[in-house]
């Protein structure tokens, strides 16, 4: 018959007060009391002892109403397995042996020196695998000064247009090890004779050779490029159109242009009178300039903004524009009208109870009292 | 010479000599994310500078209260606070609420049912006395 749970009797309370002598000191009070009550229950119990056989064997014995029922053991392979003694009285006091063994092995730590530290930067650094260094497409720091941005735009113009004039694939473009901003500032721009694209006017041949030498990584063979990039149809189209257009006579019309008026998106302007390859090529030049500017400045431009960049000057202004602030506090900081008022203060984060205490000068007193009492200070 | 009681010449009353605004601080709370703060954000950008400039005696604080409705909270010199939720309101409505809090005294709102009129001189005719009523009128018999 199954034992019914009973309420705690007064005799148990008396026994608990004496303590359980065999319980290890590492056990908590709840576990100690539970082990003591189980030990007493085993001592005073009048019910039948529990069988240690499997559940199926016990059910089979109940069905056949005898101890050695047919089919006990494993009959899956037709051979009965040798059985363990059927009835074993569980004499051991539950909850006593395991904690004793555990108590022998357990050694409580007094300090945290030898414990494993989980969390934090060091743990994260230890767990991260040593991956190869990834070469980033853009620098993480963004250029903010207008002079730097202007120099980057001029440099991108010179690099891309000089590659175009030299008839070299844009894949050959490399990051110059030395700054070519001074050289790029000396170069002038003028329309080509066909009036569709812009040519560079170098002050001297030395400047031209120096620029090309610093900009061009290697001049690949056309067949190599076509073979290596045969899978990429767009890339091969780029190169074909490059070679098709670049071999045109590159002579300027004579009239120089300020760098801010250099047309970038002339493909849309002249699309009516041009072949589709030439339109694609002009758009490729625009993309190369934009890409180069993004690499130099670290400023990412969205597609609608790129479409608005008809000239280098517009590109420069788009790069100068700061992104719209996402937080109202940032927008209010930009607006000088509120910041000049003496009676207005604004916070960029929520003002909590600690901030309110700090405003009235009470927080330092609270902090000192918390430290004196050894309590944690929530904000430093 | 009989001793005469001191007569009250004047009672202190706000606005008789100097007017002290009872509202000392206005807190504007907004949320960057919630749509109910759209009007509040527009108010803070557009209308608040003029309001703050027109009321230099009031301290104005602006702070976010993320994922909560926008609230204007007024602090008064009697130690009380009044808060008005301005969710889904446009900037003009919020300006009216800010002016309401600015002009409030900070006292609890209570209905005056028994004495609707407050006056320093409560009765122009004075206190009625049964001993001073005219004889021809019906005197009160004590």
TrEMBL record, chain A:
Protein name per UniProt: Uncharacterized protein
Organism name: Coniosporium tulheliwenetii
Organism phylogeny: Eukaryota, Fungi, Dikarya, Ascomycota, Pezizomycotina
UniProtKB/TrEMBL annotation, chain B:
Any one Gene Ontology cellular component term annotated for this protein: ribosome
Matches recorded under SMART domains: L51_S25_CI-B8
UniProtKB keywords: Mitochondrion, Ribonucleoprotein, Ribosomal protein
Gene3D superfamilies in the record: Glutaredoxin
Any Pfam family the entry gives: L51_S25_CI-B8
InterPro entries: Ribosomal_mL43, Ribosomal_mL43/mS25/NADH_DH, Thioredoxin-like_sf
Keyword NAD: no
Keyword Transmembrane helix: no
Subcellular location: Mitochondrion
Domain Ribosomal protein/NADH dehydrogenase: 32-105
SUPFAM superfamilies assigned to the protein according to its UniProt record, in alphabetical order: Thioredoxin-like
Family: Belongs to the mitochondrion-specific ribosomal protein mL43 family.
PANTHER family per record: 39S RIBOSOMAL PROTEIN L43, LARGE RIBOSOMAL SUBUNIT PROTEIN ML43
Protein name, per record: Large ribosomal subunit protein mL43
Biological source species: Coniosporium apollinis
Taxonomic lineage from the root: Eukaryota, Fungi, Dikarya, Ascomycota, Pezizomycotina
């Amino acid at each position: 018959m199954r034992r019914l749970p009973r309420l705690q009797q007064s005799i148990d309370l008396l026994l608990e007060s004496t303590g359980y002598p065999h319980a290890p000191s590492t056990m908590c009070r709840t576990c100690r009391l539970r082990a003591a009550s189980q030990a007493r229950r085993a001592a005073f119990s009048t019910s039948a002892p529990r069988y240690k056989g499997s559940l199926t064997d016990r059910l089979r014995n109940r069905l056949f109403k005898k101890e050695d029922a047919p089919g006990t053991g494993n009959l899956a392979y037709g051979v009965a397995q040798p059985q363990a003694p059927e009835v074993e009285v569980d004499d051991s006091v539950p909850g006593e042996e395991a904690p004793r063994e555990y108590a022998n092995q357990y050694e409580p730590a007094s300090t945290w020196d030898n414990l494993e530290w989980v969390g934090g930067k060091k743990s994260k650094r230890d767990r991260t695998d040593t991956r190869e260094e990834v070469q980033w497409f853009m620098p993480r720091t963004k250029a903010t000064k207008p002079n730097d941005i202007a120099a980057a735009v001029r440099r991108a113009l010179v690099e891309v247009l000089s590659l175009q004039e030299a008839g070299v694939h844009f894949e050959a473009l490399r990051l110059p090890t030395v700054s070519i901003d001074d050289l790029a500032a000396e170069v002038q721009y003028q329309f080509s004779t066909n009036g569709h694209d812009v040519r560079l006017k170098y002050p001297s041949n030395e400047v031209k050779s120096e620029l090309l030498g610093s900009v061009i990584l290697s001049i690949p063979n056309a067949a190599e490029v076509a073979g290596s990039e045969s899978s990429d149809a767009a890339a091969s189209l780029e190169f074909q159109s490059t070679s098709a257009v670049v071999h045109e006579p590159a002579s300027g019309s004579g009239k120089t242009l300020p760098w801010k008026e250099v047309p970038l998106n002339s493909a849309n302007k002249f699309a009516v009178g041009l072949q589709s390859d030439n339109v694609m090529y002009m758009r490729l030049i625009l993309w190369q300039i934009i890409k180069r500017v993004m690499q130099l400045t670290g400023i990412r431009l969205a597609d609608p903004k790129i479409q608005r960049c008809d000239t280098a000057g517009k590109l420069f202004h788009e790069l100068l524009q700061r992104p719209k602030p996402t937080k109202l506090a940032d927008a209010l900081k930009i607006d000088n009208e509120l910041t000049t008022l003496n009676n207005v203060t604004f916070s960029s984060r929520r003002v909590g109870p600690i901030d309110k205490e700090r405003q009235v000068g009470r927080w330092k007193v609270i902090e000192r009292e918390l430290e004196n009492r050894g309590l944690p200070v929530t904000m430093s | 010479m009989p001793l005469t009681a001191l007569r009250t010449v004047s009672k202190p009353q706000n606005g008789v000599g100097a007017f002290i605004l009872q509202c000392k601080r206005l807190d504007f709370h907004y949320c960057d994310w919630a749509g109910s703060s759209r009007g509040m954000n527009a108010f803070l950008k557009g209308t608040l500078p003029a309001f703050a400039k027109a009321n230099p005696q009031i301290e104005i604080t602006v702070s976010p209260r993320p994922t909560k409705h926008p609230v204007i909270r007024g602090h008064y010199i009697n130690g009380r606070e009044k808060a008005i939720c301005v969710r889904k309101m446009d900037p003009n409505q919020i300006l009216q609420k800010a002016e309401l809090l600015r002009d409030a005294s900070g006292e609890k709102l209570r209905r005056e049912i028994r004495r609707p009129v407050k006056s320093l001189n409560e009765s122009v005719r004075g206190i009625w006395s049964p001993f001073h009523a005219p004889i021809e009128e019906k005197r009160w018999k004590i």
